[in-house]
Amino acid sequence: MTNQPKSLQIPSRKVTSSQSDTKQKNKTLGVVDDNHCNGFPIPPRNCLVLPIKSMTDQPLRISKAMTRSLPSFRQNTGGRSGGSLLLIAILMTGAIQVNLYGATFRVTTKVYAGPTLKPSAEHLILFQEGLIYDFPQIESRYVTIFDLSQKLVTLMDRETQVQASVSVDDLIKICAQARAAAKTEEQRTQLGINAKVETSTKVQGYRLRFANLDYQLTGQQPEKPAVAAEFAKFVDLAARLNLVRRLGPPPFGRMTLNQHLAERKEIPLETTLTLTRGDEKLEYRSTHELEELTALPKANIEKIEEAIGMRAIYRQVNLKEFP
User: Which of 68, 123, 154, 280 is the most buried (most CB within 10 A)?
Assistant: First the structure.
């Protein structure tokens, strides 16, 4: 495989017997919350290789809808950062409207693998005056700041004390290139670009399915429409960031589903993702607890102040060098 493939390549991948063990799959294939809490890191061989380069100077690989591998939620696997960024991803590619003073609220997102009652991932997401702070709670090594006024996303690593930034314009550009690189109907279908939102018969909400992925989602309507708009921006940027970082399954179907929510001024309440491989099914569930506030509590303000301090002193590195 060359660094600049001329066309989409779909490499084959064999599933080893060791992958039948769920714990081992956690270590090798980890799935992260599909929201920003969003990506599902998959081995490079199980992917579509797009004829464009990501900002890490590598050919952009998008997981082949996990048709040949069984992922599980990623927790502290020593892998790439951002793995714990979201099971949400909103709005189609296009301009992102920015307000300097956004709504103030917080969302706690939890992700569960299978029937377990213990979350595999948890995020505290704080929204304050056009700035969005994503704090993973189970594995707290990484912090992400989405600065809507500056149109900049910053990733920070507590362990190595480095940070990397990417502009919103670059995120939009890479996502648009990835869409354009899917030339055939089969490629667009497999990547979820052509996926359509349906009315769910399983939950009071919506359904979207493509390849071996099946999303069932229930929405909730905030009291303030601005809350839904701000959350939509966050999810959109999170999905684009996962694509650039080459984390997870194709984001396009999920982006379509969440655009559907944004148009109705809703945000997710609960999402179930079912992955099918032969006779085996894996189910992942995410919940989103919304709290609309006039002001963030002191404990949250202290977290924000810590993140601002990290951004002031951490060494800047290129995105491709970020852990």
Answer: 123
